[in-house]
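Structure (tokenized):
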């Protein structure tokens, strides 16, 4: 009778172990599926992060370009505000020549052609020599 009880207990333990193995395998399969889903999600997030980084770089380049344009506009506005309202471009150019302006300064600030700016500079040189 004792061997029958021992065999029955051994059989029950074996069945419980088999059931535990099947349950653990089922749990492991579920965890693998969740891991695969999480890996896919991580890859998708990396792609989205990469796209955001690229867009940020493009925006930063655009912002720098706009900042440069704003600085140039501010400089031009300052030059316009410094002009005397009744002063024509040639008077303003002569005043700038006396202050040491270059040909490029005259072209940019007074709207003169390169030849006109050169002429005014040459006239100023002639006047300073005499």
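Design, position by position:
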């Amino acid at each position: 009778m004792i061997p029958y009880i021992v065999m029955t207990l051994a059989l029950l333990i074996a069945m419980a172990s088999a059931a535990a193995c099947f349950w653990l395998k089922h749990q492991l399969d579920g965890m693998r599926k969740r891991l695969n889903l999480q890996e896919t999600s991580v890859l998708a997030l990396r792609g989205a992060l990469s796209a955001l980084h690229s867009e940020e770089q493009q925006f930063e380049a655009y912002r720098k370009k706009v900042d440069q344009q704003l600085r140039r506009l501010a400089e031009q506005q300052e030059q316009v505000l410094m002009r005397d309202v009744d002063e024509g471009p040639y008077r303003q150019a002569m005043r700038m020549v006396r202050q040491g302006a270059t040909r490029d300064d005259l072209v940019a600030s007074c709207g003169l052609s390169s030849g006109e700016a050169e002429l005014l500079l040459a006239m100023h040189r002639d006047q300073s020599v005499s």
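Reviewer-requested clarification: Residues 2-82 form the longest helix (81 residues). Residues 43 and 49 are 10 Å apart (CA to CA).
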